[in-house]
Amino acid sequence: MPTRGCVTLASRLSPDVLRIDAQVVVDELTAAIQTLVVRQMRKRGTVVGLSGGIDSSVVAALCGRALGMERVVGLLMPERESAAETRALGQQVADSLGIATVVEDITRILDAAGCYERRDAAIRQLIPDYGPGWRSKVALPSVIDGEQFRIFSVVAESASGEQRRARVTPTAYNELVAAMNFKQRTRKMIEYHHADRLNYAVAGTPNRLEYDQGFFVKNGDGAADFKPIAHLYKTQVYQIAEHLGLPESIRRRAPTTDTYSLPQTQEEFYFSLPYDKMDLCLFAKNQGLVAADVAPAVGLSEAQVARVFDDIDAKRRATRYLHLSPQLLGDVPEVYR
Amino acid sequence: MSPLESEVRSFIGDNFLLADDAQKLAGSASLTRDGIVDSVGIVELLHFLETRYGIEIADDETVPANIDSIDNIVRYVSTKLATTASRADAGLRDARV
Hints:
The structure holds 2 protein chains of 2 kinds.
Chain A lengths: L6 H5 L10 H19 L5 E4 L4 H14 L4 E5 L7 H14 L2 E4 L3 H7 L1 H10 L10 E5 L13 E5 L5 E5 L2 H29 L2 E2 L5 H5 L21 H10 L4 H4 L14 H4 L5 H12 L4 H8 L3 H17 L1 H4 L14
Parallel strand pairs in A: 1-2, 1-7, 2-3
Antiparallel strand pairs in A: 4-5, 5-6
Chain B lengths: L2 H13 L3 H6 L14 H15 L10 H4 L2 H27 L1
Helix pairs in contact in B: 1-5
């Protein structure tokens, strides 16, 4: 149980506590990637799915530094509901690094799997008028505004701009998520296809917030051969991006899920706060600070920080299963796991 | 054990635990903090309460004091049902007048 006693850290809690020596970290990570990918996995290079976001861009850059840019392939995998800038930004990163890209539009696969159709059917359970021309997203109420449980709502917008919101039912929610997860799982299937054909490893791109809080699809974006920035807070990933000279358009883009047809920030869908404040709360909680110590640094009340801490714990509990590899019920000691 | 508590325990046993574990669960145990129910489980619980007892649970009523333990659920639903019944009685009296 944390106690109010970490006086030194509490008194200097600010975004500066997450400052890193980016050069040192980059050197450590590139050495680790060389060891993992080449010496241990015996792979020739890496495949990285480029979303046009900060995390995949930094991972591609680190892999290129470690193995040579010619041994990294960036995959651009848009579908018909991807944000317009996603593909352009992904290509821009690849061009700035000098890595090869492959464009794989996954719309036809998603269509054939029934992703859009199943999603629409799930939403129609809540909003019967939902159909062609409508767009949608899933949203959560803010954790800092009150004690109420955070319950997902579907927000849908008709072609004429009329917006509807409906609290999910268990069946509609589960069917909606199951349909949308086709997107992440299809992208991962494509990544492994290219990894297999090239004898490359697949690099995963979660940052610490996403990894810790289970913000990924099991066997979708959660699958990878290695995850080089999963221990780094998001603000630290930005520091590395700046150090590596990644394009400003990437460094300025707001974190997005780019999964639903209506624009949706990660904060609106999953996290309680903007990433910089979320980082600081997660760091402080990991250091054993209590809500009262953290509140001034993030500009929230003690009660609000306490709710953020509770939400962090709740997500860790709820997503523990996502982190588990397939569990054996008896020992097979000959196999290294 | 009241019929209401018995039904809530059965629902929890059928959906989140094994039946025996649900019967042994302390009435005051936190369903969320003890990891029995996650955010999707809360949606399932609300849906069960609304459909089984014909009540409407507003967003601002989905707070731990109402939903986070068997004791709290039983208290909240009982109050909700009593309020609904007294409103129905009042409506009936108004109609007679």
